[in-house]
Every structure is written in structure tokens, then in C-alpha cells.
User: Which sequence fits this backbone?
């Protein structure tokens, strides 16, 4: 299943920069998303040369993305943004399906940026 999700220009720019400045610039951006309750999703990412077992590869405007099965299910119908301000930095997710969580908060609002774990070995200085 290929999820139907949208990357904002800011998210696409961030992902492309991570791949370009990694040890494997011909690789792909692996995004793992897990449910985070009412606060939205928790996201982790790495830059990898090839997809891992169970990952699906999806091209988005020339960017290779590697998505694990659970992430593909969660990202269907979601808009992914990247927020970078002096107070916060990370991915923000908006569910366009209009679902809601158990605490009655709106599911169509963009959630605060999720924490992202970055492997420093996947980034290099130029």
C-alpha cells in the first residue's frame, strides 16, 4: 500500500537537505512514525543507502523515501510539515481525514512538532 500523504515545501526541503549532506547522498530518507496519543505522532528518521526489510520505497518529487509498514498506515491522508523556529523544530502532522483522538481534540489541526531522533553518523559537514 502506498500512502497518500502530502509534504509541504518546508518538509521536502528539510528531507532533501538531510539526504544531500549525509554519508549516502544517493540514498533515501527513512521516516518512522508512531502514534503519540493526543499530542499526535512521534517521528524518527535516518538517511539510508537502501530500504530495510519491510520498507516500501516511495518517490516524492525526486526524493526517495523509505517507509516501514506501520508508518505507511499512519501517514495515509496526512500532511507533513517541518517547523523550524527559535522555540521549536521538528515535523508537524495534519490529518486531513478529520479523525479525532480519544480526548476529543480536533484531528484536523496540525500537531506540535514531534521529537525526531537523528543519527549523527548519517550527517556530515561540507
Assistant:
Amino acid at each position: 500500500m502506498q500512502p497518500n500523504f502530502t509534504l509541504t515545501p518546508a518538509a521536502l526541503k528539510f528531507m532533501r537537505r538531510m539526504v544531500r549532506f549525509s554519508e549516502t547522498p544517493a540514498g533515501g530518507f527513512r521516516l518512522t512514525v508512531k502514534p503519540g496519543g493526543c499530542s499526535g505522532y512521534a517521528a524518527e528518521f535516518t538517511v539510508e543507502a537502501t530500504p530495510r526489510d519491510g520498507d516500501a520505497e516511495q518517490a516524492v518529487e525526486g526524493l526517495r523515501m523509505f517507509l516501514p509498514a506501520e508508518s505507511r498506515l499512519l501517514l495515509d491522508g496526512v500532511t507533513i510539515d517541518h517547523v523550524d523556529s527559535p522555540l521549536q523544530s521538528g515535523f508537524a502532522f495534519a490529518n486531513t481525514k478529520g479523525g479525532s483522538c480519544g480526548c476529543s481534540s480536533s484531528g484536523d489541526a496540525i500537531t506540535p512538532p514531534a521529537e525526531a531522533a537523528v543519527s549523527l553518523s548519517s550527517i556530515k559537514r561540507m
The chain has two helices and seven strands. The CA atoms of residues 17 and 70 lie 25 Å apart.
